[in-house]
Amino acid sequence: MSKSSPLVGKRIVLGGGGGIAAYKVVELMRRMVDAGAFVSPVLTRASLRFVGRTTFSALGSEPARISLWDGSDPIPHTRLGQLADAIVLAPATADLIARYAAGIADDLLTTTLLASKAPVVVVAAMHTEMWQHPSVVENVATLRRRGVVVIEPEAGRLAGGDIGVGRLAETDVIVQVVETLFEVSTKNLLANKSVLVTAGGTREPIDPVRYIGNRSSGKQGIAFARAAAELGARVNLISTVPVFDSAGINVVPVESAQEMFDVVSNLAVSCDLVVMAAAVADFRSANVSPVKIKKRHGAPEIRLEPTPDILAHLGATKRPGQVLVGFAAETGDLEIEARRKLKDKNADFIVANNVLEEDAGFAVDTNRVTLFYGESEVALGHSDKRDIAEKVLRYVAEYAKNTGAWQE
Ligand code: PMT
């Protein structure tokens, strides 16, 4: 993705604060350089206690700077600030956030911040108690009001062995947010594209009353349909759940895997993109009773048979220019299963989620997914389902452009 990254040619000041997460920021810097950005490291004195200046100088696009006074340039802060296309503060400690929010300019990094009109991304990392302290909460709110993008710390293991919110966000997430700053408006990203999305869990009848089902609410699929419509696509949504507020979306209700197969295989032929977010049953009853099974006759014996695999069928019949996004709902290792599904079903992308995770997977409004495509793997972080959908669609559109699948 690096050749077409929106970071190509962008000048980024990477402001390093004094926190243990500084070691992860080295990787962040490298990733932005690899993506084509010109990265100028500007470090606080405190940061040098964690990672040496030489490391940043060696991996950045130019030598790391620390002081207003240590180079031949008499006004480095105005030059850095004016030339910057973006400033990324990482790790942004409680102290750095406070100084920035208060407009203090007592070192090269804070003077550069004040001398710049470029967008700023603050990537916070600190101990949980500090992050939740009212002064930090207020400072973060102040920065947000001024339009600063704040990437909140994630939960996990912290320095000293504590567990809680405080870890620097994953590098992938930070890079993606910075890229977003430079992306041309997403409006009409899918203009003239025809997109088919499936949503909800299928119901496989046992008799006229009972069925085999699953926990899917359809929220993730519906979020994809809405995001695609907002990005300008013509959208068909094949759904097992009722869809309210379906403006701009053609909703086709279905119930069973077979019904979904019939509708999808028919409509997909003319689609540029298919997103299989539905939880399609793998098995159905082979001996569906035409009348209600009576309790007094004892427990029925239900023989199961496989349902048609819609995604695998689409993969086998994919036409040039068509992009296929499948999902993997897992309860264990995401990578092995996602890569297997990517290959076996001939999909272009697999959106993998662990459905045992809290606030992810079935029926909740948020999700945490990892996107697998080609040899790549991108963790998209924890976010609401609409946001996840838009991020995936961006990757898909980028991929389709790069591979020439979509001509315009
Ligand atoms: O609907 P929500 O409550 O918002 O929950 C979202 C979700 C957890 C359902 C969603 O994020 C998700 O993971 N959807 C896929 C569920 C699933 O069926 O996963 P799977 O790993 O069993 O199937 C792999 C892929 O094959 C999926 O794209 C599925 O649509 C497809 N499939 C599966 C079986 C089958 N017979 N035909 C298929 O096309």
What is the element layout, followed by pairings?
Elements: E1 11-16, H1 22-34, E2 38-43, H2 53-59, H3 76-83, E3 86-92, H4 94-102, H5 108-114, E4 120-124, H6 128-131, H7 134-145, E5 149-151, E6 154-157, E7 163-167, H8 171-182, E8 194-199, E9 204-205, E10 211-212, H9 219-230, E11 234-239, E12 249-253, H10 257-267, E13 273-276, E14 283-285, E15 304-306, H11 310-316, E16 323-330, H12 334-344, E17 349-354, E18 366-373, E19 376-384, H13 385-402
Helix pairs in contact: 1-8, 3-5, 4-7, 9-13
The structure holds ligand PMT.
Descriptive report:
- By secondary structure, this protein is an alpha/beta fold.
- The chain folds into 2 domains: 11-180, Rossmann fold (3-Layer(aba) Sandwich); 186-403, 3-Layer(aba) Sandwich (Rossmann fold), CATH 3.40.50.10300.
- It has 13 helices and 19 strands.
- The protein has helices at residues 22-34, 53-59, 76-83, 94-102, 108-114, 128-131, 134-145, 171-182, 219-230, 257-267, 310-316, 334-344, 385-402, and strands at residues 11-16, 38-43, 86-92, 120-124, 149-151, 154-157, 163-167, 194-199, 204-205, 211-212, 234-239, 249-253, 273-276, 283-285, 304-306, 323-330, 349-354, 366-373, 376-384.
- The strands form 5 sheets. It has an 8-stranded mixed sheet, sandwiched between helices. A 5-stranded parallel sheet has the order 2-1-3-4-5, with helices on both faces.
- A hairpin with a 5-residue loop joins strand 6 and strand 7 (163-167).
- Helix 1 (22-34) crosses helix 8, helix 3 (76-83) crosses helix 5 (108-114) and helix 4 crosses helix 7.
- It is elongated, with a radius of gyration of 25 Å.
- Ligand PMT binds at residues 216-221, 257, 276-280, 282, 307, 309-311, 326-329, 341, 353, 355, 361-363.
- The site of ligand PMT has 27 residues, from helix 9, helix 11 and strand 16.
